[in-house]
Amino acid sequence: MKTFYSDAHLRHDPPEEFEMGRLHPAVEIPLRAERVKASIIQRDLGPVMAPEEFGDEPILRVHDSDLVTFLGEAHDHWREKYGDDAPAAIPSAWPARGLKERRSGHIESRLGTFAFDTATPIVKGTWAAARAGANVALSAAQAIRSGDRAAFALTRPPGHHASADVFGGYCYLNNIAIAAQWLADQGMKPAILDVDYHHGNGTQCLFYDRPDVFFTSIHADPAVAFPHFLGFADETGEGMGEGKTLNIPLPEGTEWPAYEEGLFHALAAIKKFGPDVLLVSLGLDTYEADPISRFRLKQNDYFRMGAIIEDAKLPTLFTFEGGYNIDAIGTITANVLQGFQDT
Ligand code: FKS
Ligand code: ZN
């Protein structure tokens, strides 16, 4: 299968993120995607291609123009306020419930308005990288639209936590949602399967009331895991979208047998929906040695994962999401793609 990749992702290189009460070295780093690209080439899984430029329109089908404008100018405004020594913009105040809120155009006010966490810094190159990521996902969608059986969008930064007007969880633009919407606009019927360790809250919100896009996610129980406020089993969609969302939260410590059961459950629901294209938010942070997550999948389990996804017999677009074990990320990503391809 084709892999789409843009080196513009290298420009998003935040040094640190604020979490658990302190600044930590960032885990969502350029080396992740570089390692994945290297493994794909080494395993000979297909050509690595540059994306085409799709312009703002497909992004604006998913995101509010206020967010898009903000992301485009945030770092300039941050530097104007705090100077070049404060490289990464991170919010420190939010318009929380219980206080009457007024919103000015000030950078701190806008950061608090659009960001939902402190782990998603905006650096000088963030917007260029995020925009290129959307083009990577759209180029993969175009390959699928043109008849390719599968495509891998090596998107970085990731996307599944970003919603119409909110960014966070290392995500700025929701790559998979942009691709799914573009395919829907071409007359296709998309289903989204999210296998990242963390619930795809952004993707779920974007399609929650939609009858035409199915969303299912297997993830760590949000009662104890990020993103904390969404991803519970009783969220099933609303209005016209009732029944078109399926969450499968699993406990910390989950190993392959229980995970596989969840995967079969998700794929059975997808089959019932009857899509003509499958989009997979491919997070690799379910790995046993992931530094920030607590499932226990082993390297070989990822071949199985790819084979099970292939068994849906649908044109399949993978987008890259999380996964932070730098030594394993290339291997386990390639295992999924190879498991799919060899089936
Ligand atoms: C743990 C705090 C968790 C943020 C985790 C973000 C996860 C991002 C991701 C994505 F795919 F988007 F990259 N902090 N104590 O892996 O879901
Ligand atoms: Zn994740």
What report would you give on this structure?
It is a single chain. 36% of the residues lie in helices and 13% in strands. It has an eight-stranded parallel β-sheet with strand order 4-1-5-10-9-6-7-8, sandwiched between helices. A two-stranded antiparallel sheet has the order 2-3. It contains ten helices and ten strands. The mean pLDDT is 97. It starts with a strand and ends with a helix. By secondary structure, it is of the alpha/beta class. The protein is globular and about 55 Å long. The protein binds 7-[(3-aminopropyl)amino]-1,1,1-trifluoroheptane-2,2-diol (FKS) and zinc ion (ZN). Zinc ion (ZN) binds at residues 196-198, 283, 285, 321-322. The site of 7-[(3-aminopropyl)amino]-1,1,1-trifluoroheptane-2,2-diol has 18 residues, from loops.
